[in-house]
Amino acid sequence: MFTFIPELRRFPSFPPVSEREFWSRIAAQKRLAGLLAEFRDAARAAKGRPVPALPAALYMEFRRTGNRIDYEQPYFERRCTLEALVVTETLEHRGEYLDAVVEYLWSILGEYTWVLPAHAFRGELFDHLPPELFAGDDPLPPPHLPFVDLFAAETAGYLAFTLRLLGDELAAYSANLVRAVREEIERRVIGPTERYLDGFVSWSRGKHNWSPWCCSNLLWVANEILTDDVRFTVLVRKLQTVIDRYFDHYAVDGGCDEGPGYWQLSPGRCAFYAEGLRRASGGTIDLFAMPKFRAMCDYIGYAWYAGKKFASFADFGGRHQVYTGMIRMLARRSGALHSLRMAHDYEAANGLHRQGHTGMAMTLVELTEGPVTAAEIAEIPEEFLHVYPDSQQLHARSGSFYVAMKGGHNGESHNHNDVGQFVFGAGGRLAVADLGTATYTRETFGPRRYENWLQNGFGHNPPVFSGVPQSPGKEFRAGKFEVAGTPDCFTATCDLTPAYPAELGLVSCERRLHFDGRKLTVTDSWRAAKPLAWSVRLFHDGDGVKVSCRGGEIATGKLPLDDSNLRSAWGDSINETRLAAPAAAAGEVTYTIEG
Question: HEC profile for 362-420?
């Protein structure tokens, strides 16, 4: 793919605080009242306490112990609190929060680096710096590290939008502070991207969510910070080469192998980039008009089940809160109808709430992109049976029931060894759940990733044979993936044979799902060169799920959860059903799940 970029012009993004009529209308919207109250409460609380500290010891902890959370929590708290202060000051415009805004800007400008410790030492993220700079076990990266990771770019976004909304007020407070913000964004983010983009191999190659996430922030930051349209155009042309690669790498059918959590940070962020490019080009470049991008935008509409429950494949948090503003925007621009309905139904079910470190851009779109009306979705069906043939994913909804299944391979971005994984929703809960991922540590993206049971096959429901789960790597994949039927009665078949190591001697292994409109029946069958014991684990969100089995034995119980990510999603424990069949060279087990 190649997109020609003509001369661009910087554009007005969001109205500044001085446009009181606009922001007064936002403040008066009843549907936003709860969300704005959460921002106001956070801003008021921040006035009475110091900026969270970020001592060097927390940064160095990552290299010393592998812990990344202790540094990331106050790091993100600083940015989220700055956002709350800026949003509240913009809505109220009384000058009450400017002192606190200045303190947070001062603190963020003083950070040793905006790059997270988890991203500052991994050689595969950038290759433009001499390796001797990272020799030894120094727990701090080189000073003035000329690398832009996700959150350096996102930090620049927080600061740039702060100037967009409150720039005149802050300049009256201290013109030098505003100058310092602009200069630090140039030094830490814009300049390194202009000079070294090709060396940022973590995202310049376009292979996963880092690419649109970084590019979207950089386009909008440059729009606010640069004063020269020519320089702005040259930078965006560089960014567009990354976005073109991103589209080339993305699945032809629009399916997201990173799962719905990272969808927000992949096509969701690409939508923000596309919107900026559309405005900067005066509408002459519209990525939303691409059929492939429309399919990408519609993924989240199929992956959502109910409440905050999704088909939580890959690194995803089990239950997830989303800002629907970006979904409303991309759905309207691209014609992604199921995502438009999802945005409406998700907001109706969950309301609007303040999120974590999603970036100020997401918040501003949430506030300014109007709600989905009943008329907009009147002809969009609630039920669907949607198959991504290249990504090998199935998503189906019928009444209060939902089924999702994946094939794919075990070398996907944010991969779990889970070819054949399925989820089943019934009556608003997940009768069969995907637990999601564990709290990130140094090992999460290192050679020990699959020692964690939530990333390897033991934390998922594809079969484990004689204690051996599926193997990691792109070569371990599904074979055929076929679906036939209607939303209320369908059968899906997935060949799991290639996903297992050769040592097992599997000749064939097939999983077949059949949904009859009320219950889900799963049949696992296999043949092997030697006898293999079969076992499957099912996790249930809540009580009352019925599992019957033919060809195997059933054991039930509660699985204690000690990981903070899991506990926040599921509580202290989750119900579990273990199915097992004795060793056999050929076998078939059929089990039925009713919610």
Answer: HHHHHHHCCCCCHHHHCCCCCCEEEEECCCCEEEEEECCEEEEEECCEECCCCCCCCCC
- List pLDDT tens digits, range 549-588: 999 999 999 999 999 889 988 999 999 999 999 999 999 9
Tokens of 304: 């959502």
CATH of 384-594, one of 3.40.50.620, 1.10.443.10, 2.70.98.70, 1.10.3210.10: 2.70.98.70
The predicted structure's pLDDT at residue 308: 93
Strands of the sheet containing 422-426, edge to edge, are 384-388, 393-398, 401-406, 422-426, 429-432
Residue 370 pLDDT exceeds 90:
yes
- Any idea where the domains of the chain sit in the sequence? 1-119+143-201, 285-380, 384-594
- Residue 403's DSSP bridge partners are 396, 424
Tell me the per-residue pLDDT of 89-109, one tens digit each, with 9 for 90 and over: 999 999 999 999 999 999 999
SS3 annotation, 485-519: EECCEEEEEEECHHHCCHHHCEEEEEEEEEECCCC
pTM here is 0.94
- Distance from CA of residue 151 to its chain's centroid? 14
State the average pLDDT over residues 230-236. Answer: 98
Say yes or no to pLDDT of 379 above 90: yes
With 0-12 / 13-18 / 19 or more C-beta atoms within 10 angstroms meaning exposed / middle / buried, residue 421 is buried
d(CA 190, CA 187): 7
Output the CA torsion 446→447→451→455 (10° steps): 60
Asked whether the beta carbons of 312 and 259 are under 8 A apart, the reply is yes
Q: How far apart are CA 380 and CA 243, in angstroms?
A: 30
Q: Find the radius of gyration of the CA atoms of the chain.
A: 25
Helix (H) or strand (E) segment spanning residue 185: helix 175-185
Q: How far is CA 122 from the centre of its chain?
A: 21
CA 541-403-265 angle, 5° bins: 80
